[in-house]
Amino acid sequence: MENGVEALKIGASMLIFVLAITITISCFTSATQALNRIFDMHNEDEYVTVKDEDGNEYYLNFVRFDGGTREVGVETIIPSIYRAYKENYSIYFYNSDETPMVLYEKENGEEVNYIDLEKEVYPNAEKAIENVNKLLYEESEQYSNGLYQELKSKTFIEKLGEYYIDDVTGETETAEVNKTKKRVIAYIQK
């Protein structure tokens, strides 16, 4: 009788051991598949050359997810605008013909189609948020009821991307570790 009990204990132990090894192998297989998907997405990146206001060219890397874009409305754009100042994103707006959508004009007459904390200099975060509120909700030369009223009836194609600030020409020898990544969102009116 004791031998039978010991045999059942050994059998149960072997069953638990086999189950643990199966779960471990399954976890490693799932992790490998996830990494392969990430690497495949990285290999399908679409590189776009963009010119800044000074005429300098730089490369943007728009990452593709299921066709590369998604359709969004004002409910997605407004939080992104506020987050742009907090998380140091760049957001660019374009009309349906992919010409820059003018958000406002600077005092020197320069037309601005972006929201970028690096290009727009504010003394503190409160001034930046004050500027966003003014842009969105107050009357301006471009928008009689503010930008929010203009955007709320439209849909946009959102493209996400990133580039390295130290690598604006695409030809730097700076090591990947030392580059500063800049996230970019482009909204193109549909």
Task: Please give a structural write-up.
With 190 residues, this protein is an alpha+beta fold. The chain has 2 domains: 1-43; 45-189, no CATH class. It has helices spanning 2-43, 74-87, 125-137, 147-151, and strands at residues 46-51, 57-62, 70-72, 90-94, 104-105, 111-112, 114-116, 156-164, 181-189. The strands form 2 sheets. Strands 1, 2, 3, 4, 7, 8 and 9 form a 7-stranded mixed β-sheet that branches. A two-stranded antiparallel sheet has the order 5-6. Helix 2 (74-87) packs antiparallel against helix 3 (125-137). It starts with a helix and ends with a strand. Residues 61-67 have low confidence and may be disordered.
Characteristics:
single chain, 190 residues, alpha+beta, 7-stranded mixed sheet, two-stranded antiparallel sheet, 4 helices
Biggest sheet overview: 7 strands, mixed
Q: Taking Cα atoms only, what radius of gyration do you get, to the nearest Å?
A: 26 Å
Percentage of helical residues? 25-40%
What fraction of the residues are assigned to beta strands by DSSP? Answer: 15-25%
So how many helices? Answer: 4
Number of E strands: 9
Task: Count structural domains.
Answer: 2
Average pLDDT figure? 78
Global structural class: alpha+beta
Low-confidence stretches: 61-67
**Structural shape:** elongated
Helices, strands, pairings?
Layout: H1 2-43, E1 46-51, E2 57-62, E3 70-72, H2 74-87, E4 90-94, E5 104-105, E6 111-112, E7 114-116, H3 125-137, H4 147-151, E8 156-164, E9 181-189
Parallel strand pairs: 4-9
Antiparallel strand pairs: 1-2, 2-8, 3-8, 4-7, 5-6, 8-9
